[in-house]
């Protein structure tokens, strides 16, 4: 069994810990989103040294009262070790289970709280200033606008924006049903159907409890003949302030669903349209769903389109009520892999690993800068897997068959699983090495002074110190305690793995690698849930 473990460790390190450590691109994105690298990004002057300096400023502001509790910071450090800074950044920018605050900032305040609120408002296109700017009248005005759209107080809205599912549900009730349609211009070449009465009939069904809203649109927008609409009223709709906000909100949800990886700019270009068609197709593929394109997205003229936004706001609101589907989705995928033919398992492994290699290559380069913006990577697993769950039973087949349509969606799904997998691999490897006595702790000062401690589950602890220097012993004890605390987490994860893989580890034929990979991810998610940490989950 020891040989099987060592083989698994070796392969896991080779396949999933390519260069290890943080995702540089994601770290730059999050630091820029929070304003720590905002100016450097706009001037194209980001360097590794500036990233390190920005992390130091972030950690300084994080330590101030009023953001993340000290106990949670310590838990993150214990579980994630060297990757703790990236995980703390993810918590700060999270719009899935984000940080909540007790009060609004005072005017003139500039700290991590104001950065986080500015970041959330910028995401929805409501705040145009620098994220690092002090809290001002511009900040307050943007928050008021978000509150007006959601029908809530400013304080409630500030915290609703920590969970965009809940904010969208509030927006639907307060404003969405009153503004069910959006108009946009696009140069897309995608085959989108011309307007017919099917679009109006679907809108009537979506507004069945809002007859006055539908009757007004029926009188002013829709002509009696199915193939015509009132162009003047359409132009009026397109110029309404809420029209652009709705476009941005829909685009943000496409991003959270993993179907969109372009710029979050409220512009419905070819990539956004492609993501919409993809989501429409996914909804239409569900049982008892009837979301044909001509009922929700139609062409009015060559470049003018009409979109039934309320139809999707209703679905987003329904998704917000669902439980976290992460484990269910992963378990369905695991079951599909386990039950598949060996040849399909092999193809799945090859295709999955090829996508992981693409993701790994992108981890070590800064984000692409286009017109002062960059495509964002979404890290909120809870929302992502709720949206992913509707196609969970098709994921294995999509990867085996290398479905070309929706490749961005599949790659984002693999990227999210890989994010879990990389963390799981680190803890699994460290835990097993600790058990086998192969994970020493060392502390060094000025290249000359060092302390060394090695644990062995069957032997005594060995500690070496060549010469005392300053705080070397105290620092080394902190490192040792850090390792011991981290091992509690690692060992808990190994217990979950052994429960599911014990028979396979001692079997004559080893467990299929794709099955092991997904089992490891599931084990990691279970341990995270057990520790009740708001991290990647």
Portion of residues in helices? 55-70%
SS strand fraction: 5-15%
Rg estimate, integer Å:
26 Å
Number of helices: 24
Terminus-to-terminus distance: 31 Å
- Counting copies of identical and different chains, the oligomeric state is single chain
Low-confidence stretches: 533-537
Q: Would you tell me the structural class of the helices and strands?
A: mainly alpha
- Order of strands in the sheet with most strands: 1-3-2
Q: What is the arithmetic mean of pLDDT?
A: 84
Give a brief rundown of this model:
With 537 residues, the chain is mostly helical. It has 24 helices and six strands. The strands form two sheets. The chain has a three-stranded antiparallel sheet. Strands 4-5-6 form a three-stranded antiparallel sheet, covered by helices on one side.
Task: List strands and helices in order, with pairings.
Blueprint: H1 2-16, H2 24-33, H3 38-43, H4 48-62, H5 70-80, H6 84-93, H7 112-123, H8 137-150, H9 154-160, H10 164-176, E1 181-185, H11 197-206, H12 211-220, H13 231-239, H14 241-256, H15 270-285, H16 293-296, E2 297-299, E3 304-308, H17 309-321, H18 326-339, H19 342-362, H20 381-388, H21 395-401, H22 407-435, E4 441-445, E5 449-454, E6 462-465, H23 472-506, H24 513-531
Antiparallel strand pairs: 1-3, 2-3, 4-5, 5-6
Helix pairs in contact: 1-22, 2-6, 5-6, 5-23, 8-9, 10-17, 14-17, 18-24, 19-21, 19-22, 22-23, 22-24, 23-24
